[in-house]
Amino acid sequence: MKDDLDLADEAVRFGRQHEFADINWYPSQRKAIYRIDDRVSSNTSGNGLYDYTPFRSTLTATLAIIRTTEENQESTNDANGKCIGAMLVTSTLRNSAFGLTNNGILFTGYPVIGFQNRLQSSGTCLDSPQDKLITACSWDSRIKGEFFHQTTFTIGLSVVKNFIEDVQKLVALEPKSLCGLELYNGILMRYVKASSAYLGKQEDSIDFDISYYRSKDPMTPRLYEDILEEIEQMAVFKYGGLPHWGKNRNLVFDGVIKKYKNAGKFIKIKEKYDSLGLFSSEWTDQVLGLKGGVNIVKDGCALEGLCICSQDSHCAPSKGYLCRPGKIYPDARVCTRTSSKRLI
After folding, report:
1. What pLDDT digit, counting tens, does each position of 44-79 carry?
2. Least packed by Cβ within 10 Å: which of 57, 88, 93, 164?
3. Angstrom distance (rounded) from CA 157 to CA 8
């Protein structure tokens, strides 16, 4: 773990030094964890296992308490509570080595050495016993557990330094604004190579994977709604970020197909091999720019990322959230809380 003061420069350098490196960034804590993951000879001794702690089956009662706590923090604008909780979550994960063990049972220290199928796995939740939901995966919709948005995009290495610095500027303006992300272990930064695939990455890049609270009520804004929306729009529009095809909200797919230099070739191949549209849907036609658009404009649409707000009704004016320009990216249009004090 290091301070994130030089993260913008280190992010570019670090990825070129290690084949499978990644970074967990905790922007409100001003910290980053650099994970080194390299190949060793197959005859090297070690039987390490990675059973990522948040992806393990958990007592449903515990999950309900965690969700209720976050709902209360959101409803009372308790940013301090989120920051305290984030510190507890990240320190617990770090002290438990995130679920790594040297022999499948105990963690005795780094490096952890083992085979790819045991160390590149995620967690044991789906393999856990059926116990009538006494325990469950945290995202299981049958229980009161996690419910969140995910925003995931790819930023080219040529501009990633500037993007990271812009996020840091936002944190400097609102130091507690991204504690909510850290409750989900911060921003995961993963390195990806340029691809010759028609819809592949256009250059060597970094994937930014962000998870954050989502209300069960689509008309309820979240704490620091504006900061999260500005990061989302800044990444995709200011820095030309490519959205993850599955982990995103509607607005980032608006005009996305134009970002791929070989999009026309992809469409031709698609038409040749799927002339009947067997593997197509209304959504894929919209994303590929073949039929209509992805934006759904209505009252409150910006809260769920169905649109970018252009008028106050797209936010939550009755709750004090109005459509305003971004703080450091003025072209952004975000739902900003304008009434009462933001923090408690």
Report:
1. 999 999 999 999 999 999 999 999 999 999 999 999
2. 88
3. 10
